[in-house]
Amino acid sequence: MKELTLEATVQNIEAATEFVNAALEEFDCPMKTQMQIDLVVDEVFTNIAQYAYAPQTGTATVRVEPLEDSAGVRLTFFDGGKPFNPLANGDPDTTLSAEERSIGGLGIFLVKKMMDDVSYAYENGQNVLTTIKRF
Amino acid sequence: MKIYQEKNGETLAIALEGRLDTMTAPELEAALKDGLNGVSELTFDFTKLDYISSAGLRVLLGAQKTMHKQGSMKVTHVNEMIMEVFEVTGFTDFLTIE
């Protein structure tokens, strides 16, 4: 298991991504899957950086660990910001035309599409978003 | 991310290199803000673009809305990962992808 805690800022997304990629290489993660996971890190970290503590700031933790039962990885994000379940909102309507589309809502939707399983819990004063990707 | 722009009359070609994500999407947004004035044909070349996040999708959506009013827009040389993002978000329905 590997874990990194950072100030939750947009500027730190790159550091979080590099940390996760280094761990994924150890776990023999396929390249295409790594790209999908990088996208997940970008989306989740962005949400924490922009909304979790606003207008204050705080930290975010990302944990990477291999699955016990099969090839794959569990990626868990922790933050101590306002309780917020990103899975509570419905999915955006992806059948709308460009003119009808509003900006936003696509980030967590992409996370759900890229990963095999995504779940949320509020534990010990922290938002915990657990995502699983099988290789 | 690197942004290469080539303007020829009313035609604008933009090639992107790297990642179009939360950190870099504002750079593209800034380039398009004034860059689309008088443009009737916009082409994005994604040959060297590794991936796109929702922040990048928002900028592309904004560009598409602008170009609907004043001309046409197409996206070329999209890799497998970016195509998957376009497909699951339904962007394939309104983007012209070649």
How much β-strand is present in the residues of chain A? 25-35%
Low-confidence stretches of chain B: none
**CATH C-level class of chain B:** Alpha Beta
What share of the residues of chain B does DSSP label as strand, in percent? 25-35%
Q: Mean pLDDT across all residues of chain B, rounded?
A: 96
Number of strand elements of chain A: 5
CATH architecture designation of chain B: 2-Layer Sandwich
Arrangement of strands in the largest sheet of chain B: 1-2-3-4
Regarding CATH, which class of chain A?
Alpha Beta
- Neighbour order of strands in the largest sheet of chain A: 1-2-3-5-4
The CATH topology of chain A: Heat Shock Protein 90
Helix content of chain A: 25-40%
Low-pLDDT stretches of chain A are none
Task: Give the helix tally of chain A.
Answer: 3
Count of strand segments of chain B: 4
- The shape of chain B, in one word, is globular
The string of secondary-structure elements of chain A, in order, is: EHHEEHEE
Quaternary class:
heterodimer
Percent of residues in helices of chain B: 25-40%
Description:
- The complex is a heterodimer of chains A (135) and B (98).
- With 135 residues, chain A is of the alpha+beta class.
- Chain A has a single domain, classed as Histidine kinase-like ATPase, C-terminal domain (Heat Shock Protein 90, 2-Layer Sandwich).
- Chain A is 33% helix and 28% strand.
- Chain A contains three helices and five strands.
- Chain A has helices at 13-26, 31-52, 106-114; strands at residues 2-7, 59-66, 72-79, 117-123, 126-134.
- Chain A has a five-stranded antiparallel sheet with strand order 1-2-3-5-4, with helices on one face.
- Chain A is globular, with a radius of gyration of 15 Å.
- Chain A starts with a strand and ends with a strand.
- With 98 residues, chain B is of the alpha/beta class.
- Chain B has a four-stranded mixed sheet with strand order 1-2-3-4.
- The two termini of chain B are 22 Å apart.
- Chain B has a single domain, classed as STAS domain (Transcription Regulator spoIIAA).
- The longest helix of chain B is centred in the middle third of the chain and has 17 residues, at 54-70.
- In chain B, helix 1 (25-35) links the parallel strand 2 (11-20) and strand 3 (41-52).
- Chain B has helices at 25-35, 54-70, 80-88, and strands spanning 2-8, 11-20, 41-52, 72-76.
- Chain A binds chain B through residues 10-11, 13-14, 32, 35-36, 38-39, 42-43, 45-46, 92, 94-99, 101, 103-104, 106-107, 109-110, 113, and chain B through 19, 21-23, 50-51, 53-55, 57-58, 61-62, 64-65, 68, 80-81, 84-85, 88-90, 93-94.
